[in-house]
Design goal:
It comes from Polaribacter ponticola. The structure is a single chain. The protein is 81% helix and 0% strand. The protein contains 4 helices and no strands. Helix 1 runs antiparallel to helix 4 and helix 3 runs antiparallel to helix 4.
């Protein structure tokens, strides 16, 4: 389960960065929202999967509520999921 969470975490982090730093600027500066639409749904699904998997593996990883909170908050911070992978999942 940990390896699945690591993969989802990586994909969620990449999709978030693409959405923030590529799709959103294109939308605002060029007026083309197609990239946001294309990346938005997969990112949303990966985000929800990340949250659910974090809650599911909490017991397996022996995380207390504070650690789970850090893992969940990291999902909304740019580069946060990469930090979680390095600090808590390796």
């Amino acid at each position: 389960m940990k390896s699945i969470f690591r993969i989802v975490s990586l994909l969620e982090g990449i999709s978030y960065l693409l959405l923030l730093f590529i799709a959103t600027p294109i939308k605002h500066f060029q007026g083309d929202a197609s990239y946001v639409k294309m990346l938005g749904m997969p990112h949303g699904i990966l985000f929800m999967l990340y949250v659910v998997l974090a809650i599911v593996i909490k017991k397996e990883m022996n995380w207390d509520n504070k650690t789970l909170g850090i893992v969940l908050v990291a999902s909304i911070l740019p580069f946060g999921t990469f930090y979680i992978d390095k600090k808590y999942l390796r």
